[in-house]
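Inverse folding, one chain.
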């Protein structure tokens, strides 16, 4: 193998390895599931109760809950680590789900999915969210 070929192959190997090394050092993606609810929402109350069997599915989700369905969400309704969602709403970049309960999935603060209501939760919504987690976070 000539010296020129050897140098070219070495550069090629280095270039191919660089993205992997950079990916290993890159921060992990952040997947956040935000659960939107209201205290007077009968479906939210049902979903959150042990009767539904669904309340344990999202122990890691962030809960945004106001007093009444008719009320706007305020800053105090948001956990501190997702105030950025509230700030986006204030700027008109983000809208709350129209139906509650609602779930919004964010990947690196970008909305990638929205789910509404409790109908077909076990058959459709939960499997889709599990797929999103495995697809984007490799879990």
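Residues assigned per position:
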């Amino acid at each position: 193998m000539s010296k020129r070929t050897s140098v070219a192959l070495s550069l090629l190997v280095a270039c191919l390895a660089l993205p992997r090394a950079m990916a290993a050092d890159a921060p992990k993606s952040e997947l956040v599931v935000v659960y939107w609810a209201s205290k007077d929402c009968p479906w939210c109350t049902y979903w959150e109760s042990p009767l539904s069997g669904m309340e344990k599915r999202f122990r890691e989700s962030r809960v945004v809950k106001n007093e009444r369905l008719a009320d706007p969400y305020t800053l105090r309704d948001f956990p501190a680590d997702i105030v950025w969602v509230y700030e986006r709403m204030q700027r008109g970049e983000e809208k709350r789900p129209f139906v509650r309960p609602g779930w919004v999935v964010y990947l690196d603060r970008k909305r990638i999915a929205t789910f509404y209501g409790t109908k077909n939760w076990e058959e459709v919504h939960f499997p889709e969210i599990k797929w999103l987690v495995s697809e984007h976070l490799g879990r």
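The chain has one domain: 31-137. The chain has a mean pLDDT of 76.
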